[in-house]
C-alpha cells in the first residue's frame, strides 16, 4: 500500500472514532510506519489513538509523539489524582486489594506492586488512565505468579491452534523460566495482538517479548 493511501486510511479511522478529537492529531507515514504528533486533552484519548492506528491494515509500526494537554488553565492537583486513583483501584474487582501502589508527579501516574496475572496488571492501568488530570501512566507492576507450570509452551501453542484467525505454524514460542519470546510473521496487527494475549493468558508467564513481524 502506498504511504499516501495509508495516511488517508489512518486519518479516516481516527476521524471515525467518536471518543477522540482528531482535529489536533498529525499523521505522517513512511514505509508503513506511522508517526503521530499533535495533542489531545486526555491520556485516555492518546491511548485510544495509538490502539486504533495499530489496527489499521498496512501499518507496520507506530511512533507516538502525541502530547496530553488538559483543557483549560486549571489542572487537577497531584494529591487529588492520587486519591482518585487509589479509590478507583479499590473499587475494581479485577485488581487484588492492596496489591498496587500509586505515585503521582506532575500528572504522571506510576503504578507499582505485585500481582499474579497480566489481566490484573492491565486492569490497574485501564482503571487510572481515564482519570481527569492524568497525562501519562507508567505501569511498573510486577508479575509474580505462584505457579510456573512446565507445560507453559504447550499451553500457549494449543491456544494459538484454537484461534481460527491465526496460522499457528508461522509462530515460534520459546519459554525460559516464565520468560516467553514470540517470533514469526502474521498478516495484521490484530493477529499479533492475539498471539501476545494468548501468551499472557498461560499461567506462569512473567514476561513476554514479542518479536513477531507484521506483513506489509
Taking the sheet with the most strands, its summary is: 4 strands, mixed
Helix content estimate: 25-40%
Sheet/helix structural class? alpha/beta
Please compute the radius of gyration using only Cα atoms: 19 Å
Given as residue ranges, the uncertain stretches (5+ residues, pLDDT < 50) are: none
What's the order of the H and E elements? HEEHEEHEEHEEHEEHEE
Written overview of the protein:
The radius of gyration is 19 Å and the shape is flat. Strands 1, 2, 3 and 4 form a 4-stranded mixed sheet that branches. It has 216 residues and is α/β, with parallel strands linked by helices. The protein has 3 domains: 3-68, Histidine-containing Protein, Chain: A; 78-143, Histidine-containing Protein, Chain: A, CATH 3.30.1340; 152-214, GMP Synthetase, Chain A, domain 3 (2-Layer Sandwich), CATH 3.30.300. It contains 6 helices and 12 strands. The mean pLDDT is 86. It has helices at 3-16, 43-54, 78-91, 118-129, 152-162, 189-200; strands spanning 25-30, 33-40, 61-64, 67-68, 100-105, 108-115, 136-139, 142-143, 171-176, 179-186, 207-210, 213-214. Strand 9 (171-176) and strand 10 form a beta hairpin. Helix 5 (152-162) packs antiparallel against helix 6 (189-200). Helices cover 35% and strands 28% of the residues. The N and C termini lie close together (8 Å).
